[in-house]
Amino acid sequence: MFNDVDNQCKDIVKVSLQSDNFYYTFGLSLLINEVNSVLSKSSLCFLVGEPAEDSNEKNIIIRDSMVSIQMNKECRRWRSENNKLNRTTIHIPFGCRQNNLSEIMGKLEKILLIASMDYSSFSSPENHKTIGLKKFMQLSLTECKILLLIGKGHNIGNISRILNRSEKTINTHCRNSIRKLGMLNRVEFYKYASFIAHCGNKDRSTLCL
Q: Are strands 66-75 and 84-93 parallel, antiparallel or unpaired?
């Protein structure tokens, strides 16, 4: 299924487990190893208990309800300038409570495949289809704005005035966002929104699997 992107893979993917729940991290590490052995795309290096802030050498950061994937991104301001690489981060909501084992392993398969790419390869619409990402499941521009505003502490009334939309419309966008993000309730949604709002300006990209 994934032969089209074999030449875009890296040799080593570093996985940082940033959760205090031992059973969660232990179980996920076993599943990740199992999925990776089937893909045969990368060697894995697990980093347990290291500070999330010191993340320059981590490709995948797994937290309690989300996964962050760091990808290399080419940066060249002028045609005559040599190519420079910087990093961008994609955040993926990752809840396991409402998924069965095969669904969880399917998500991990997509995560490992994405982590093996650089940003330019990942951005290709053709590769999105190959990975199995669905455009209609991604947050719209308005939903992203609402997510960010909620994360900054605005309530529905404030957001309604800021975006010049009715509160009913804002609530509908929130419900749609919760469904796309695969979250169980608004509490999880608010926690994720707060995390995104306090990321750097370049690290607010959300991907829905």
A: antiparallel
Report the C-alpha gap between 197 and 22 in whole angstroms. Answer: 28
Specify burial of residue 178 (Cβ count, 10 A radius: 0-12, 13-18, 19+). middle
Instruction: List helix spans (H) across the chain.
Output: 22-39, 101-115, 119-122, 125-131, 141-151, 156-163, 167-181, 186-197
Higher pLDDT, 136 or 81: 136
* 65 Cβ contact partners less than 8 Å away, ≥ 6 residues apart: 93, 94, 95, 183, 188, 191, 192
Whose structure tokens read 């076993």? 30
What digits encode the pLDDT tens for the residues 32-71? 999 999 987 678 888 866 555 555 568 899 998 899 999 8
Of residues 163, 194, 190, 166, the one with CA closest to residue 177: 190
| pTM of the complete model | 0.84
Please give the structure tokens belonging to residue 135: 């455009």
pLDDT tens for each residue of 12-34:
889 999 888 889 889 999 999 99
Q: In the β-sheet with 205-206, what is the strand arrangement from edge to edge?
A: 43-48, 12-17, 60-62, 66-75, 84-93, 205-206
Reported as half-sphere exposure (CB side, CA atoms, 13 A), residue 85 has a value of 7
- When pLDDT is cut at 50, 70 and 90, the band that residue 123 belongs to is confident
The Cα 134–Cα 150 span in angstroms is: 25
